[in-house]
Amino acid sequence: MEMFEHDAPDPGNAPEFTVSEISGAVKRVIEGEFGRVRVRGEVGRVSRPASGHMYFDLKDDRAVIAAVSWKGQVAKMQIRPEEGMEIIATGKLTTFPGQSKYQMIVEDVAPAGAGALMAMLEARRKALAAEGLFDAGRKQALPYLPEVIGVVTSPTGAVIRDILHRLRDRFPRHVLIWPVAVQGQSCASEVAAAIRGFNALAPGGALPRPDLIIVARGGGSLEDLWGFNEEIVVRAAAESRIPLISAVGHETDTTLIDHASDRRAPTPTAAAEIAVPVRMELLAWVADAGARMARATLSRAETRRQRLVDLARGLGRPQALTGPSRQRFDLWVDRLGPALRAAIQAKRGRFGPVAALVRPDLLRRFLAEEQRRIDLWASRLAPALEGRRRRAAERLSEWSARLLPAALRNRAEALRHTTQSRQALIALGGRLHSAPRARLEALTERLDRLDRMRQTLGYTETLRRGYAVVRAGTDLVTTEAKAATCPALEIEFHDGRVQVVPRAGDVPPPPAAPSTPHPPTPPAPAPETPPTRPRKAKPDVPPGQGSLF
Amino acid sequence: MSDISAMSFEEAMAALEKVVKDLESGQVSLDQSITLYERGAALKAHCEARLKAAEERVEKITLGEDGQPAGSTPVEGL
Asked: Which three-class secondary structure string do you get for chain B?
């Protein structure tokens, strides 16, 4: 040591640590010094990631220490640290070299005194009450006589025994025990699962669905009963559709399930008493009801019988009612025979004189008279019939006579009508025939008139005024040149036609043409044959003659 | 009139109670009282049968690995 101190000024001689080495050294010192500690403080921020470990802070007014509980430690905790809770944490100190951090590994947590736990319980109760889980309106009525009772408790121990004994005394029932741990870390989840499990049973299933659930546990410390304060238990009890009796701890212990249950029993034994009525009392009641019923029925029948007797007595003897009538009847019966005989006697006395008047000849006379009247009518019957027949025959012949002339008249009428129609037909036929002929005549006359007009306008009328038409064959000859070429010409006058032959000598040869007054008119030169008759044809024809055509 | 055999004990008891009261009140006719009496007798017999049928039977539920009820076993000696 002295050597180190001496060398202190010389940094070169100080031992050199790596970070890991110094961290490990610190860790060893801390773990060795604080192997097991109890730390009291308030729980700060709590976080519980999916890993299941729990990280939280422990603090007081001046310092904070990080705390961690591993998953397995958390599961074993009676009480889970919650923010604001004052606790005493038990564990050891260690470091976390990765973050240059020291922290406490908390193995168990205890409330820092009963007051702290009660404060927490009260806070939770208020929160759940605010949700309405404890409302009186949620409470269900318990069945009067449940057939099946589900008991959620430990299958061993005094509690289930007490319940079964009391049930046996009062009214033996079918009991289904759902075994659970009634303390420890699994208590709450098992109790909640049992309540839900009973509710999940279907009516008529393999396991009968209970009509009533009893959640029971014997007395214990606040920590022992803590599972019945857990939220999941409280919620399961509040949601149970099967009526639920809670019987946790002794009478003075109150857990949160007691607020949520439909009925709270101070002890498990009391729960059994609440659950079922006393069988013997019921038997007695039923017997009593039967007796009362019989008594009431009998007494009522007796009352009525007595009344009947009284009324019958009031009716009196029937003979008394009929006596006077019978006497009157007898009296009249006695008078009936003599009265009948007297009446016959009187009638016979009145009949005698009338019978004496009725004799046979009176009837015969009446018959003869009637016969005579019949004969008279019969004799008149035949002539009347004959007359009627004759009158009918006359009317028949009369009508027949009138029938023939009428028929003839009809026929003549028809004939006359036919004749008239025929004449009308002939007249129409004539008109039909003459109508086209008249039209034809009118057209013919019109045609003549037009022809006459045509002649007036035609060239023949012009011929009449001294003009002539020269032709060669069928061709019209209008020039001298052409006439000169034609072997023969025909001149038309108004009263006939003359055949001529142009003669060459009559017409000067073409060189002499200029001397000719009408160069175009000379007939065709050099006619081969001389004209049979000299004829000075062309000069007569006016130069514009052709235009007539 | 409801079927008596389908009644719960509590219903039958209430019905019997009413029959007794009606008969005791004397407000029903004689014919009716006979009918009522017969009904009351049937209700009484039903109640008694339910009371006499009371039999203790205790079973413990056995849980499967999934935490769900797998069956039940009779419990003796408790």
From this structure: CCCHHHCCHHHHHHHHHHHHHHHHHCCCCHHHHHHHHHHHHHHHHHHHHHHHCCCCEEEEEEECCCCCEEEEEECCCC
